[in-house]
Input
Amino acid sequence: MPKDKQYIEVDLKNKKIINDSSLHFDYLYGKRNLVNDEKKAYAFQLGIKISDEKMLNNKDYSRPLEVNGNVYDSNGNSYLINMVSWYEEKDLLTGKKYGVLTLEFPNIKSVPDILKIEIIRVYTNITGAFDAKIN
Output
């Protein structure tokens, strides 16, 4: 990982990822579910498609990346992630596998237009040789 922070920025209004720190993610879905009718409380689920083979082939970790538990909208408002899940699927047309990272936000009153998610760590298996220059 580079020293600079990496983010996934999702445009929920237009249903697309506008920044993925060059990790090639795609927007899959955004779902708002009523969890408490009396309090008008909603949970929101965000699905992100991960197609990177190095990330998918990593068997050392339960999911290919970790994200910060606090997510921000374009106004700086903070939203707490209460659950992150991961599963793999296969594209029926191409036969290629891809991963689905699901983030769940509890008690969200309204879905913001943009969410900015900090990536803490990316896991990949490095199986080939590589050169590292040490000063």
Residues 7 and 130 are 26 Å apart (CA to CA). The first helix runs from residue 53 to 56.
